[in-house]
Amino acid sequence: MPAHDDSGFRALLTLPQAYDAFQTAIGGDRWRRWYIANLLQPRAGLSILDIGCGPGTMLRFLPDGVVYHGFDVNPRYVAYARRRFAGRGQFTAQRVDAAPIASGGFDVVMANAILHHLDDSEAAHLFEVAWAQCKPGGFVLTYDNAWVPEQSRAARWLIGRDRGRHVRSPDAYLALARRRFSRVDTTLHHDGYWIPYTLFTMKAWRGRDPG
């Protein structure tokens, strides 16, 4: 089974302008502001690796002074991000695991709305790559849609029509992160977007190397 479904109307979301417009319409801007202010907490000089950066949407909400590098396999997303954010970030159109480990690593590694597109083996590999690219003392930050018993029928219906084929329960996402990270802080939200939806976040800390 493919990692995601781009058939029918979903194919529009492979176009950067359509993706950004859709995200804005459902409340993605509000969600990103909360996510950045409460979980990322950026500061000048913070180095950020964004795995699966899409059209660079997250950079729109980050302050000047952060050092940002986004990777995405969709060349249309990357070309759009390079035009839109020229001079503010670096964007690469390839899988991040094909890139060398950054010298010194990144303070933060983000993989936003990616895990529900990956099977367990691929997701475990992503956490290995993220751990390797993260500085000791830094963290990996993710969010994805999730199945929980208490979510509304509307949320369950909408999530069932997501492009991702591997939506999981919070416990299942957490089990994947804990294969590599011993400390993982989590949050669960039913009101992150304007539409009924369930979003689960993980902040996985890479401990400082013994020294």
Write structural notes for this entry.
The protein is an alpha/beta fold and 211 residues long. It has a single domain, classed as Rossmann fold (3-Layer(aba) Sandwich). Helices cover 30% and strands 22% of the residues. The protein has 6 helices and 7 strands; from the N terminus they run ααββαββαβααββ. It has a 7-stranded mixed beta sheet, sandwiched between helices. α3 (75-84) links the parallel β2 (67-71) and β3 (90-92). The radius of gyration is 16 Å and the shape is globular. The chain starts with 15 loop residues before the first helix and ends in a 6-residue tail after the last strand. Residues 6-10 have low confidence and may be disordered.
